[in-house]
Input
Amino acid sequence: MLRDKKICIIGTGNMGEALIGGLIGSASSKPENVICTDVREAKLKDIQDTYGVQTTANNLKAVADSDIVIYAVKPQIMAAVLNETAKKLDMSKLIISIAAGVPMEAIESCLNKKLRLIRVMPNIAAAVKEAATAVAAGKHASEEDIKLAMTIFNSIGKTVFIPENYLMDAITGLSGSGPAYIFLIVEAMADAGVKVGLSRQEALFLSAQTVLGAAKMLMETNEHPGQLRDRVTSPGGTAIAGLATLESGGLRTTLINAIEVATNRSKELGQVLIKNFSNNSSADKAIDK
Output
C-alpha cells in the first residue's frame, strides 16, 4: 500500500512540487512518509511549510531512508545525481525517473546494476492535477511496482501503462509536447474571436473553455471524436464551413507531422543522452579506481 511507503522526491521544481501536492492532497501518502530534496534551502523551507513533508539537502541520506525514489531533476544533471546516489540504490527500492527525454537505457548504462526501474512521462498539466502520464517499466520491475507508480501519478492526473519502452519517444511527441500545441490552437482561436468582434478576455475564455469541454466529452462519453464532431456538424451549417476551411488549410496533416517531428527529435536527444550518460559513468568509475 502506497501510504505505508517512504517516498523520496529528488528535485522540487514544478513537476516535483506538483507530485508532492498531488500525493498529499489526494491522501495517497502521509506527509511524514515523504522526504524531498533540493539544492535551494529557501525552496525546501517553503515545501515543508506548505505540505508538512520532510526535507533535506542530502540526496544520499534521503535515498537510503526511502522505499520509492523519484528523480524529478533536469535531464542535464540527471547523470550526476544518479552517480551521487548510486551506492544506496538496490533491488529493495523502486526507482522512478521523470527526467524528460532520458531513456531507460541511459539510466541503466549510467548505474550498471540490477534495479526495479520505472520511467514516467507526465506533462505540464500536472500543475492543475490533469496530467496525461505514460508509465513504462524496466525488466526488473514487477506488476506491483507498476501499480505503485500509476497510483503515484494518478494523484496528478490520469496514467496509461505502455508495455513497449521504445514508444516513450512517441509519448513525448504526443502528450509530453501536446499542451504546447493546444496552447497555440487556443491562442489562434482567441485571435479569431477578436477578429470577428469579441474582446480579448471573452475570446480567450471561450476558446479555453471550449477545448476543456470538448476534451471532457471525449473522456466521459468514450465516443470516437468523429462521432462527436458529427453531432456539432449540421448540413449546410457553420461548423461544416469551418471544418472545410481547416481541412483545406492542412490542420490535420500539420498536427500529424508536428507530432512525428517531435517524436523523432526525442529519439535524437535520447541517443545523445545515452552516450553522455555512458561517458559519465565510465569517468566516475575511473575516478573511483
Observations:
- Residues 177-249 form a domain with the ProC C-terminal domain-like fold fold (CATH 1.10.3730.10).
- The first strand starts at residue 7 and ends at 10.
- DSSP finds twelve helices and eight strands in the chain.
- The two ends are 41 Å apart (CA to CA).
